[in-house]
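Researcher: Last one for today. Full complex below.
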Amino acid sequence: MRFSKKILTAAVCAVCIAAPAAWAQTGKISNGVVKIGVMTDLSGLYADLAGPGSVLAAKMAAEDFGGKVLGAPIEVIAGDLQNKPDVASSIARRWLDQENVDMITDLTGSAAALAVVKIVKEKNRIAMVSSGGTTRLTNEDCTDRTVHWAYDTYALANGSARALTQEGAKTWFFITPDYAFGHSMEKDASEAIVAAGGKVLGSVKHPFPGSDFSSFLLQAQASGAQVIGLNNASSDLITTIKQAAEFGVAPKQRLVGMIFMITDIHSIGLKATQGMIYTDAFYWDMNDETRAWSKRFFERQKRMPTMIQAGVYSAVTHYLKAIKASGTDEAGVIMAKMKATPVNDFFAKNGKIREDGRMVHDMYLMQVKNSEESKQPWDYLKLLKVIPGDQAFQPLSKSRCPLIKK
Amino acid sequence: MFEWLGITPQGLYGQLLVGLINGSFYATLSLGLAVIFGLLNIVNFTHGAQYMMGAFVAWMGLRYFGVNYWWSLILAPLAVGVVGIVLELTLLRRLYRMDHLYGLLLTFGLALIIEGGFRQAFGISGEQYDIPEALTGATNLGFIFLPNYRAWVVAASLVVCFFAWFVIERTKLGAYLRAGTENPQLLQAFGVNVPVLVTLTYGFGAALAGFAGVLAAPIFQVNPVMGSNLLIVVFAVVVIGGLGSILGSILTGVGLGLIEGLTKVFYPEGSSVVIFVIMAVILLIRPAGLFGKEK
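Model: Here's the assembly. Have a good evening.
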């Protein structure tokens, strides 16, 4: 009895001593927990290129960080934005108002991403967009609480459209999904084509998501353009490529997927995609670092990571490092720290977050291998050219972001 | 002649043909829905999932058992039909005396469960199903480069539609079916086993969806949401044609495919809405649909 009383006293004392210490440590972290919300398309057409894979990437980042930062636990939660801006907004408000989410990442679909970054700014938290691709995020709609991580439409358009036009493919026709991302992609690609001496003969905007693309392909065929640029993504893109083969588009005209993902290639197969050229921000089989991380990802997800999923891991890690280094989770301080620190991991080498929120890093011009070149499952791509970060992304001088003082 | 529309005649014919191809899909799918609604009074929201299952059964057959496309055309609808019969016997049967709403909720819920299951198992990007060897290639018709497989799709679905219409409208079995719709008690009094008739009809409707799924597999990516993308359009087709009207659903399916095809040329952004605009207009003028009878 006496003995147990002693233990009890000791325990109470221990708590009395330890608690303030713990308090002091996590006191810098609001609500005692760092909460990261992965808002993504968990069930719709972008679920394979982002979706559960992005959630896993964020969880891996938290685990690799040790599950704790400044003594506070790191919690990763997921939300399904269903590619609808209104759904995304209501999840964002709930997360930020009631559930104390500190940072929102992924953000599939440009329209939804644009809606959410505004709310994040209003509530003074941080948004790290890896999935939505519109350049508006770092131009007209830039905020000092947004970071745009993996890619944007300018980088993709500039990489593929410029390379091909310079190669001699002078006339283009676009098949574009009718929403923010598609419009942004078409605009950026058209500018790159014209700048490189090419010409855009026309475009057709299809409802999003689409089902049958044969009618649009016929219009593209009728245009007589050398290249048909496909601005749609995921299963829309897959169906378009498949149906293009049916209608005999190639070899007279060349198909270019402006936003192509390794999961798309896996799904369509090499037969219909071999030789296609596109711009990517990440490929699993680049070096030992990318292979090691991708292998861990593959073991849990059964698919190789896309640039978006790798980007989520990279973004979350950079965010956690900034918290650790600055000893707080206050959004303004963290943002300053993130911008001051170069990004160095398997995803980006010497990446830098600019004033407008753009994370500048190298992009890669890739070509899909043919069946003989591909030696193993997921061995799909070869690197044609590294596009250095300062050439890949829109120069700051052209930025329409009001944060940039000119 | 068509210059003022900004399109060449060749372009226009090509687009009309593409519209006809999509229309024949709509016709096959809406036919199954119309048959089921006509006899069972069930608004079958599982139809899209059954279409998707047809495509997946064909894909799985090829991938795991080496069953070719032609056998799949027979086996996949049978499999989907059998699953349909099981659903009818175990679940749907209990709802016939209740309000339409219950049938709708049940079939809608089932569709979500089936699609969710496939999504869990196969992911969202879908699986690749190649066009059968005999139908690869294309024929140059001058105004369009017509893939042989698409020509086959139009032919196959029109034959199946005609066959279904013939059985229901011109045979003794069809007469029983129609009598069962009008007055099941009386028909039972004549010694016809109405419950079995109902079960088989549901199985047949589901099999039609499965058949359309196999036809669609080589054209679209075989993916878990392929049915739900199409289902709403198909419902609009059935409503415009007149709920339960067999001929109505076939003609409207083809007609709306054509109209949608034209919209894709002249105002592509509106092509997903045009069918619903037509539906609203038709419902205002003829609430029972184009070929429906008001009760």
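DSSP finds eleven helices and two strands in chain B. Chain B touches chain A through 40 residues (CB under 8 Å).
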